[in-house]
Amino acid sequence: VLANACGPCIGQWDRQDVEDGVPNSIVTSYNRNFPKRNDGYATTHAFVTSPETVIALTLAGRLDFDPANDTLLNDAGEEVRLSVGTGEELPAQGFDPGADTFLAPPEDGSGIAVVVSPTSERLQQLTPFPAWDGEDLAYLPVLVKAQGKCTTDHISMAGPWLRYRGHLENISGNLYMGAVNAHGGEVGIGLDITDGERRPYPEIAKRYHEAGIAWVVIGDENMGEGSSREHAAMEPRFRGARAVIARSFARIHQTNLKKQGVLPLTFADPADYDAIGERDRISVNGLVDLAPDTPVEVVISHEDGSSTTIGTNHTFSSDQILWFHAGSSLNLIREQTRG
């Protein structure tokens, strides 16, 4: 029985009673049940139901038990039925306010230093992302052209990776691991334009980052659906993503990309998704004139030397465009608070 909240989600359950690959079923009152969500096992079938039904099936020890009609044997060997009492929608005495653990920061924090061990695998101090250089994005390679569903879990795999959520470089080792490559259908594998080899996306992104190569991502429908995790936007930005162009976006992921200084653009014509090849390069033009409700021109430079110019749209407000200029929303906040 779990609360209808985050709980032991995104594959963090350290399952001890069964190994991966063994078909099994679990019944939970938790609010997520898609594959691997609870224990990381693709062979676990998770059924979502009420807390009362979870308890009834647990007492019965079988999934085909009908708590409305079936009976159980008590310790005296008697047949008994289960009944559900009347619960409170809201506590009659109100909610426990808990303890006030807030510690106000000192008025002068100039003498306070946050020290993080340079050898820590789980914590790393963040370096501000660079501000926009005032130039258009020119001739950038496509790291990923994702086919079909590409959730935040495909972009930033969860489970054991969450131990690194305080260390941006280490958690970026999961970047786009679950993305399906539209060029052939491989999962988490793409073309490295530096040498023509095929490698896992996290490795390619790291190599591009170290070589100073910026890149773009191409997405399908509802890019970034699912969890609201910010790492799905922070990791691409950290490794060099400058734009994500998709048929459509999940709204939270779209906003998170904006906050990290990445351009989320949507194809004006969704069919233009099909025009982008694996070795094509992408240019995004006219960024000095980026304004609300104004289309953005994108040029696809094809491997054969030809090019295709397409239109894209965006949802930036005037304030959000300032995030892009500053390099991230946090950069802008820092500038404003200093001023």
Question: Which SSEs are present, and which pair or pack?
Answer:
Blueprint: E1 24-28, E2 44-48, H1 51-60, E3 72-73, E4 79-80, E5 137-145, H2 152-155, H3 168-171, E6 189-191, E7 198-200, H4 201-211, E8 215-219, H5 231-239, E9 241-246, H6 251-259, E10 263-267, E11 281-285, E12 296-301, E13 307-313, H7 318-326, H8 329-338
Parallel strand pairs: 1-2, 5-8, 8-9, 9-10
Antiparallel strand pairs: 3-4, 5-11, 6-7, 10-13, 11-12, 12-13
Helix pairs in contact: 5-6, 7-8
Keywords:
339 residues; alpha/beta; Aconitase, domain 3; Aconitase, domain 4; 7-stranded mixed beta barrel; 19% strand
Account of the 3D structure:
By secondary structure, the chain is of the alpha/beta class. The protein has 2 domains: 1-69, Aconitase, domain 3 (2-Layer Sandwich), CATH 3.30.499.10; 137-338, Aconitase, domain 4 (Alpha-Beta Barrel), CATH 3.20.19. Helices cover 19% and strands 19% of the residues. It is built from 8 helices and 13 strands. The protein has helices at residues 51-60, 152-155, 168-171, 201-211, 231-239, 251-259, 318-326, 329-338, and strands spanning 24-28, 44-48, 72-73, 79-80, 137-145, 189-191, 198-200, 215-219, 241-246, 263-267, 281-285, 296-301, 307-313. The strands form 4 sheets. The chain has a 7-stranded mixed beta barrel with strand order 5-8-9-10-13-12-11. Strands 1-2 form a two-stranded parallel sheet. The relative contact order is 0.10.
